[in-house]
């Protein structure tokens, strides 16, 4: 049995949550949360934590040298650095529009990297 | 001289929301004056997500949040002058500005909305020993270098101050391959949002050192390292706790200051705590027809609240232009016992809507009561699990309550033990 301490990020209250895990890393109990969202967050955080990824990619022929991008939805936390390597390989040509797909299905996650700004 | 119903100074989220709201309320001739070459303000460099959770119910990046308002402005008949620097606002609401298309221009406006935003507190405002080596910059400057100009300002970083921009930049620099060695915070608590501590520091194993500050920088041409030290309860460095950390970059995230040079020159009364204008419930300053909203009024934590506040100012300006804005006896507001300030600072007794009082607390409070009083009479009392200085709070005062208060009374917001 192991215990994990975490702070819930679902809302500004920031509850201090304690999760108990058994030897096969299954969640046994979640305590310290004050609402169901905390329970959900804690379980996800223990099983497969995910994060949004935002960055920039190089831009040719634009007013600025880079344009901002994000993952269309959260991706597994442990893949953030590998995804950054892929993003840093890309060069786009202006013009770019908000929502343009920059990398389809990055690293097989099923998540696209999309542009978050217009670039002329 | 050009003539407009409304001149909005600043084309960031505050200025755009105020202009759009005024247009929606029927104001016809509106101009936005923006110093940068595009609308959007600081959001253009805030490429991380988390914007719009309250206002749009979506987690947008800064440019996406700004983009929604830029699109609306472009589709409207609101006039926009970019690359335009406002130099002066006169007593009779004449705005003097210049740009390289029109030259020097004067604009007579019935109403003016101040939406100039804020600036970061620079190194000069702190007393850190050391020479002026390159590699010392505010976190927002570093953010512009990385996200707009596309280059990395350094490889090994120490961040002083745990404001949100510093936390966001700790993650951004780490993702781009830099090593962030520590975030030092003078206070015993962080000045940033809890979710940013978790997602930007803990996720990447970046240490947050509370009650710790930078006492010296090393290096003459380029920064070579910093000496940090722990501080006592009076925030003074404790001798013997000094530690040298080698780094080529020191980022400062030590507070934001509303940019009110124009307001001061125009004789607009400022609040000594917020450093922003003192306003009524529609965000009108003591200068008739001049309104203020966004970070020039008070430093916000979330842009969603900036938008809401600016819509109030836009609506107020529209009422003023149409001659419908009520003025007269006011109720004053006051924060005490840990409530640092209240915006708005006064409420017209004849107002037509319930009013949200926004404030920040001076330290971390847990399990307390937030009490609103008029004299000794308790108007309302809410339980609060947690309030921190990094997060803006508000409390709603209903219209009937406002109507029932005597003129010239003071509404006090205070914190009591639960």
Describe the structure.
The complex is a heterodimer of chains A (120) and B (418). With 120 residues, chain A is α+β, with helices and mostly antiparallel strands. Chain A folds into 2 domains: 46 residues, no CATH class; 62 residues, Roll (CPE0013-like fold). Chain A contains 2 helices and 10 strands. In chain A, the strands form 3 sheets. A 5-stranded mixed β-sheet of chain A has the order 8-5-6-10-9. In chain A, β5 and β6 form a beta hairpin. Chain A is elongated and about 55 Å long. Chain A starts with a strand and ends in a 5-residue tail after the last strand. In chain B, strands 1, 2, 5, 6, 7, 8 and 19 form a 7-stranded mixed β-sheet that branches. In chain B, strands 10-17-11-12-13 form a 5-stranded parallel β-sheet. In chain B, strands 21-20-26-23-24 form a 5-stranded mixed β-sheet, with no helix packed on it. By secondary structure, chain B is α/β, with parallel strands linked by helices. Chain B is 20% helix and 33% strand. Chain B has 8 helices and 26 strands. The longest helix of chain B is centred in the C-terminal third of the chain and has 19 residues. The model of chain B has no long low-confidence stretch (mean pLDDT 95). Chain B has 3 domains: 191 residues, FAD/NAD(P)-binding domain; 133 residues, FAD/NAD(P)-binding domain (3-Layer(bba) Sandwich); 91 residues, Immunoglobulin-like (Sandwich), CATH 2.60.40. Classes of the chains: A alpha+beta (120), B alpha/beta (418). At the A-B interface, β5, β6 and α2 of A face β4, α2 and α5 of B.
